[in-house]
Amino acid sequence: GDSVTQMEGPVTLSEEAFLTINCTYTATGYPSLFWYVQYPGEGLQLLLKATKADDKGSNKGFEATYRKETTSFHLEKGSVQVSDSAVYFCALLIQGAQKLVFGQGTRLTINP
Amino acid sequence: GAVVSQHPSWVICKSGTSVKIECRSLDFQATTMFWYRQFPKQSLMLMATSNEGSKATYEQGVEKDKFLINHASLTLSTLTVTSAHPEDSSFYICSASGGGGQGSNQPQHFGDGTRLSIL
Q: Which of A35, A89, A93, A98 is the mutation pick for testing B, counting most B CBs within 10 A?
């Protein structure tokens, strides 16, 4: 079945460090891929998305490229800030389906 | 745009009480709404999918009579936890998508969640 696997957390970095959160997927169709962010006590916010192979999603300094050959959608940011501390979820949506399939989430803590 | 409002944000009630949570799409028509449950430090578990005017489709293992879902309009869905018990305590999150039809891969927009605590 369809699934998403994220790197295990928690991840702790210093401010201005480079961030990578790995995400790989298994899908029977042609999925759209998403990164969502959840700040403490809140719901999820869409961070970025990509709908086809080689698309790059970007927002707020975060980027992720849809790699069909490696079935990956790794999240990167060149210089993290304390305000980036949150839980990040990778997710996929199969074309024609309604349900998002979420990874397990990666908790990110940025220390000043 | 694409704002989803969820209310209440936090509720504490006694065991045996029924609790209703509302999910509203404020600036778009939500043809489909989703209800999730999230346990501490875990991912979201989809409970049910609801299309406006139709009965909700529940995921395996979710009790239909326990978690009543109504999606009577294009901007409002409700989740009622009936006769709630301490094991129902959790963080409940709704999301909504709309426009373009089922196959158009419209993104889901999430509410801020409701923290339910049953004493």
A: A98
Give the CA count within 13 Å in the CB-facing half-sphere of A81. 5
Per-residue pLDDT tens digits for A49-97: 999 999 999 999 999 999 999 999 999 999 999 999 999 999 998 777 7
SS3 state of residue B80: strand
The string of DSSP codes covering A9-21 is S-EEEETT--EEE
**Cβ neighbours of A12 (radius 10 Å):** 12
Tell me if residue A93 falls in helix, strand or coil. strand
Q: What token pair was written down for B116? A: 């339910």
Report the alpha-carbon angle B89-B91-B92, nearest 5.
105
Q: Which residue from A40, A41, A43, A37 is spatially nearest to A57, judged by alpha carbons?
A: A37
